[in-house]
Amino acid sequence: MLPATSNLESTELFEIPEDDRKLMRKLGASFFLFGLINNVLYVIILSAALDLVPSSTPKGIIAFCNIAPALVAKVGWPYVLKGRIRYVKRIFGCCILSSLGMLVVALFDSLFARLIGIGLASFSSGLGELTFLQLSTTYAPPSVAGHGLGYFASGTGAAGLAGAFLWWEVRGLGVRVGVGLSSVLPFIIPATYFFLLPSSSTFLYTSIPPSGYESPNVQGSTLPYTPLAATEEELGEEEGSFRAGPRKNVSLTFNDKVRLVRPLLTRYMLPLFFVYLFEYTINQGVAPTLLYPVPSPDRYWLLSKIIHTIRDYYPLWQLIYQTTVFLSRSSISIGIPPLPPNLLPLPSVLQGFILLLLAFESSIGFYADDAEGLSIITVFALISLEGICGGLAYVNAFYRINQEHPDPSSAHNMERAKQEKEFKIGSIGFADSSGILFASLLAVPTELALCKAQTRRGKMLCKEL
């Protein structure tokens, strides 16, 4: 046994053969694609909101239908279904639902049909995110599992940029063709699963070091780590079914799940909930009111090249936000150490301050009305920090729970330990979605109140949109 040390994340002291590095690259690429494709349809739908519903219909209904079914999947699935996870069936089910949902949006013009299609794609996205987070826990040693999860988080961040860019490119084709073309994207996921993703059993004997161990004298050592799940044929009972046998009839009861989830509430769920509640209140309720006069080329040469009308401000804030979310969600995959466990609430605290500062800037303003350049730079910095906080909260919460050791009471039972780890990472997934849902309800009165505050001080830009 190699000695445990305090610096858990380093693998530099190990000489990893090229074959193992190639496996890690394939694992990272696979999980990056899972995160990218699973989330990109969500972004495409939000980006296409103006084109999907009549002008008289509140665009918030798109945001609601795009998040509520995903929340149902994240809340219900881990608690209701029992037994081992059949990842192949899950992945094919999500692929078909996503593609079908986008086809319904593309082929039908009625608002009701389009909302049904958006709901199908949303449910699939929520279940898909849950599935890939759980899939990451089936890899061992912990450094391998963390590698996959880090790249999955990076892929979800990239989806924001990719989705907005894709819709920008295809929106000229119209909803029927543009959204119809996006319905083929979900098929990348099963192709990745079968043709690119290494099996968890391929890491059974590798020289990749586990998180928590290091030795300057070990080079190319072969460590017998048994992954918590192997091939699909080796799995026990399926979700919702029970098979006979001393090893295969393990399933967590509802009381077991309640016991497991209690310590996760304050450690992971509340920080995730609040960071997303504040974040999406900013995006949907505050950012639309952060408007300034169009910069003059004489005073602000660079800004005048970017901002041509007051309608350009909101897309600019969203571009800044999506870019910084991608960078921060990629922090672990590019080698930045994760936050210490006791600092996991920090991003949500900072996000709350950012919300207050941006609301103050919108309603009262930090600077004089003719100093729009300073105001724009300040908002740029605050929204960049907003995206960083949101991305760090997401990737660090799921990374930390992915790396947790099994409960001592179940460590001797590999099957039970596997199911507990899958449930724990799946059970906290609803926290971010519920934060977004509550934010969508809070954003409408927030936007109206800030616009009224602006008009009271003579700033009428929000009335001109």
Class by alpha and beta content: mainly alpha
Rg from C-alpha positions?
Answer: 23 Å
Give the overall silhouette.
globular
- Low-confidence segments: 1-14, 212-238, 240-247
- How are the strands of the biggest sheet laid out side by side? 1-2
Number of discrete helical segments: 15
Q: Can you walk through the features of this model?
A:
With 465 residues, this protein is mainly alpha-helical. 63% of the residues lie in helices and 1% in strands. The chain is built from 15 helices and 2 strands. The protein has helices spanning 18-47, 49-52, 60-80, 87-107, 111-136, 142-170, 175-182, 188-195, 254-286, 301-306, 313-329, 346-363, 372-402, 414-427, 430-456, and strands spanning 205-206, 223-224. Helix 1 (18-47) packs antiparallel against helix 5, helix 6 packs antiparallel against helix 11 and helix 9 (254-286) packs parallel to helix 12. The longest helix has 33 residues, at 254-286. It is globular. The termini are far apart. Residues 1-14, 212-238 and 240-247 have low confidence and may be disordered.
Task: Please summarize what this structure is.
With 465 residues, this protein is mainly alpha-helical.
Give a quick set of tags describing it.
465 residues, mainly alpha, 15 helices, 2 strands, globular, disordered N terminus
Topology:
Elements: H1 18-47, H2 49-52, H3 60-80, H4 87-107, H5 111-136, H6 142-170, H7 175-182, H8 188-195, E1 205-206, E2 223-224, H9 254-286, H10 301-306, H11 313-329, H12 346-363, H13 372-402, H14 414-427, H15 430-456
Helix pairs in contact: 1-5, 1-6, 1-8, 3-5, 3-15, 4-5, 4-7, 5-14, 6-11, 6-13, 9-12, 9-13, 9-14, 9-15, 11-13, 12-13
